[in-house]
Design a protein that fits this description.
The complex is a heterotrimer of chains A (240), B (307) and C (434).
Chain A (H helix, E strand, L loop, with lengths): L21 E5 L7 E7 L2 E12 L11 E8 L15 H17 L8 E11 L4 H16 L7 E9 L2 E4 L12 E7 L5 E7 L2 E2 H37 L2
Parallel strand pairs in A: 4-5
Antiparallel strand pairs in A: 1-2, 2-3, 3-5, 6-7, 6-8, 8-9
Helix pairs in contact in A: 2-3
Chain B lengths: L6 H12 L15 E5 L7 E7 L3 E13 L12 E7 L13 H14 L3 H4 L7 E3 L2 E13 L4 H15 L1 E3 L1 E5 L5 E5 L17 E3 L7 E8 L2 E4 L3 H4 L4 E10 L4 E10 L6 H28 L12
Parallel strand pairs in B: 4-6
Antiparallel strand pairs in B: 1-2, 2-3, 3-6, 5-6, 7-10, 8-9, 11-12, 11-13, 13-14
Chain C lengths: L7 H12 L15 E5 L5 E6 L2 E12 L10 E8 L14 H16 L9 E3 L3 E13 L4 H15 L1 E2 L2 E3 L4 E3 L8 E2 L7 E8 L4 E4 L3 H6 L2 E7 L4 E7 L7 H34 L66 H16 L6 H24 L31 H13 L1
Parallel strand pairs in C: 4-6
Antiparallel strand pairs in C: 1-2, 2-3, 3-6, 5-6, 7-10, 8-9, 11-12, 11-13, 13-14
Helix pairs in contact in C: 2-3
The chains are: A alpha+beta (240), B alpha+beta (307), C alpha+beta (434).
Amino acid sequence: MSIISEHGFRMDGRRPAQIRNINTRLGLNRNAEGSCYLEHGNTKVLCAVYGPYESKASKRLEDRCAIVCQYSTTTFSGLERKNRPRGDRKSTEISRLLEKAFESVILTESFPRSQIDIFCEVIQGDGSNLAACVNATSLALADAGIPMKGIASAATCGIVETKPIVDLTSREETDLLPRVTLATICGRDEVILVELQNRLHIDHLSVVMDAAKATCADVYECLAVVAQQHLKACAPILGN
Amino acid sequence: MEVHISDDEKLFLISGVEQDIRNDGRTCADFRTIVLERGVLSGTNGSCRVQLGQTTDVLAGIKLELESFDPAAEKEAKQPMSFHVDFSANASSQFAGKGGDQYGEEISAAFQVAFSRSLDILPNLSKTLLAEGYRWKINVDLSVLQWAGSVPDACSLAIIGALSDLEVPEVEVAPDDGGKVSIVLKRPRTGGNMRDEEVPVAMWKLDVQSCPMLLTVSKIGSANLVDCSPEEECCIRSQLLIGVAKNLNVDDYDITCIKQHGGGLLEMESIQDMTELASKTAGGLYQAIEKRLKTEEKRKPGHSFLL
Amino acid sequence: MRVPPLTTCEKEVILEALKSGKRFDFRGLEEFRGVKLVVGSEIGTAICTIGNTKVIAAVSAQIAEPSSMRPHKGVIIIDVDLSPMANVSNEHDRLGSKGMELIRLLELIIRDSRCIDVESLCIRAGKEIWKVRVDVRILDEDGSLLDCACLAAITALQHFKRPNVTLEPHHTLIYSEYEKAPVPLNIYHMPICTTIGLLDKGQMVVIDPTEKEAACLDGSIVVACNKRREVCALHQSTNLVLSTKQIERCVKLAMSRAEALTAVVSDVIKQDQRERSAFKRPDGFSITTPSLILTSGTAAARQINAPRIQHGREPEEKMLYQPSVIVNENPLSVGSVKQEEVDEDALIAEQLSIIQNSVGGVAVSDPQSSGVSKRKKEKEMVDDLLDGICDSEEEEVKTEILGSSEPMEVVLPVVEQQKDEEDVTSWRKKKKKV
């Protein structure tokens, strides 16, 4: 089955430039400083943020805050049962990318010698897992009230026969499809995370990049609305 | 989450409990509000989410696997269910990396013991044995998303919910070449001219009336309690994980497992008292679950998170 | 061991220089360091040098059972060793985050980009496959570690040849290289990595930064491209804030570099193949080390044309005695030269006379005689020791003093015309000792 049918529809009925429905809920986790549950269609991600708190001696940085990320998937999140929820190479790599991305966004100079923990749990993975984690983390950080340069938004884009497709599902994430996960701040042209899977021809690079950037801007609009609504809902508590 | 309370608070708590009054107004045998929702995940064969008192949050997911085994190599029939409890780092920073592995393994082992006679207890579980050398393997995985005491209780409720939600496909077993068997999904033809793949597969459900339940009974001072909050867990003398199963023949409860969690000393009479309390509480819980499972409407999967 | 951090003044100087477009090794901001690539004498080994960064890669293959998930695909395993030899901050036997990143990148480039045909590595589906192992050892670190490691690994894979196999009904026959020529791996394309450093929020681009420069930069990005103008990997090494245009620019720079380096790799492999097919013994890694070593000298081997001895009696029974020195023969090996017992005294007397006659032509100047006699003593000591070890009689042991410009013409102590009786008897004693 081809990814884009002859009429121009994808397997789940979307158009190539259409993203899935985004559903969010903030403040689920009572123990954490900030938490967010985010859905990109069938991909469900839970993110919890702890901190900033005094860091352990091994991780302490004198001039800025240390960011520790952990990406884990539940054993029942994928199509086949996975034995190890975390600790394998792929999860460590994604954790590292999340750390690097958010080090650029969070104003770490405001909290020297402290640590911020970001934990992402993928409850159900149906493609674009990394992008969903970045979005969930941005909202969780906003919920925790940690100062940032802006809300980061991410999207995964692939290309099929010179046509870009955005927000891939797991059925579309095949071994042959080149895809780029891009994260930007506030939908502007400031890229904080870039990850490429499979080989991409250089002529297609600018096409994919532009599509990804546009999608990030769209996702940012959704996330910004969510953050504003949450703030309005909390305003009575703040005594405003 | 590590809760630190002062000695005066502990004293207040212990003396209150000994008079059957807890800090949040419950009695010693009361549970916190339980929210149970099934069918939460569409990617699993059965799932359930349980919230205890709005803080402890456990998600259970079941995945089926077709397993081939060597009947000669196994002396007794192996249990088709395997349990795995994972503490997500969302629950607490201390569970990051390998922090939650030890506690998770302890609870998984307790469940394995509690369900060890499940082939006798659960009436139609033996249907999972398909043919000589093939059976369904039921992998029950639990993910603890939030932690505020009483994790084993929440886990056992989630397991019962998920098992009742589980749908196992019906299969037809036919002999094949080379001594093997071919296993094909059964699709009952209801007439009409639908293609073979479009006919939905027939499913059967497990009967969970007498499913074992794992309860945590703790001893604070001279009183026995169920469902401790984190503050109460700081004051306990000792804790027992007791597995209770409903006996269908006699209107009574069987104890399938007793495990001590943590340290502490217990007298023989205390253990008897605690098991009695566990049976009584289990009775109440079974009734509540039955009522809930009957009256629950099927909602959109995953809706519970958005509430 | 902790590496002392970069001092603030060093950092400021480097940043200032970079901002004005100058670098400490006189390169331009967009200039690469020279790359040296050498393949070893053993098949499947390569050393890559970029500036001061040195990496060695070795490829080996083994037959193994495939995983049940992929029964007809071969397996490629990558192992990286970051030893304290490269950088003192590395821990021995433990891969820190840098090592994990390197392994991840190598896996991405070699495994995930599918540059090697793993299906051709299958011998028997479900039972036997080739497990190819790439070992990468970092010898020295000075920036662009990922580039160097990838290049070394790719060259080693290109160079490697696995043994040829045939399938028999009940077993697999593996041929050695002498029976059937080994088969090279089926490589579709060669991904080449480039490390691009970023400065000033991505406004400036610094190509191929050294270790010191990398510590001052804002961040870096690694791009892997191949000759077919495909981007194989876009790896974010550190945190960065870039625009998409800048990313595209970096990719273009990496692309041109990849094309140049692919040509270099192919050249090196072709040259090595030419040498091997001409049956020339490959130089291997010896050409990487400069041959200027002051602490050892070479001495030319000299062959002594020893005279033949006439036998007086019983010629049929005795072997032809040839007290020749066999050059390159290990005099310490037991039983290398077997000789029979001959009448010693007459033999010795004859030999003496002959040697005296031939030695007469050599002029031994007086000032050297003292030195010569010292050496003579040393030689005697050495001869004593060697004789003691030697089993066979009449074997002459060649001892040369290294460093001497004029090796002694004869092994035996220099015999002057007026030979002492002592000397002869002592010499005889030596012989008798055996």
